[in-house]
Amino acid sequence: MKDVPRDFAFSVGLEQLVKLYDQRPELVNRAITRLIQDDQELGWSLVVSACRDGQINLGKAAELLNMHELELRDRFIQLGVPLRVGPANLAEAQAEVHALDAWFDVKVV
């Protein structure tokens, strides 16, 4: 395939990738994985963005970046990336309590 024009790749290409994901998720996942592996800056940016948006936690971000969680935490602090520590709201806190309750199989009053 010859070089794709930049405007196609950005607008039409992105839109088509989203549509294709509904039909062939394994194909899109494989392409995105390859893209991230080939471009470390893109991989870093996507993982940091997902972490900032609360889609993944710091531990998962560190795993995806092949870093120790403490190393990534220090790097985030150096770069001024906000760290999400603990639940963001009451509903998340209650969900954590219920998860722990189920884990330990103990009733919480």
Short key terms for the protein model shown above:
109 residues, mainly alpha, 6 helices
Notes on the protein architecture:
The chain is mostly helical and 109 residues long. The chain has one domain. Helices cover 72% and strands 0% of the residues. The chain has six helices and no strands. The longest helix has 18 residues. The chain is extended. It starts with 5 loop residues before the first helix and ends in a 5-residue tail after the last helix. The model has no long low-confidence stretch (mean pLDDT 85).
Draw up the topology in text.
Elements: H1 6-23, H2 25-38, H3 40-52, H4 58-64, H5 69-79, H6 90-104
Ends distance: 63 Å
Contiguous runs where pLDDT drops below 50 for at least 5 residues: none
Tell me what portion of residues adopts beta-strand conformation. under 5%
Write down the overall geometry.
extended
Q: Please state the average pLDDT score.
A: 85
- Count of extended strands: 0
Order of helices and strands: HHHHHH
Q: Fraction of residues in helices?
A: over 70%
- What gyration radius follows from the Cα positions, in whole Å? 19 Å
Structural class designation: mainly alpha
How many domain regions? 1
Counting DSSP H or I runs of 4 or more residues, the number of helices is 6
Q: Biggest sheet, open or closed, and with what strands and sense?
A: none
In short:
The protein has helices at 6-23, 25-38, 40-52, 58-64, 69-79, 90-104. With 109 residues, it is mainly alpha-helical. The model has no long low-confidence stretch (mean pLDDT 85).
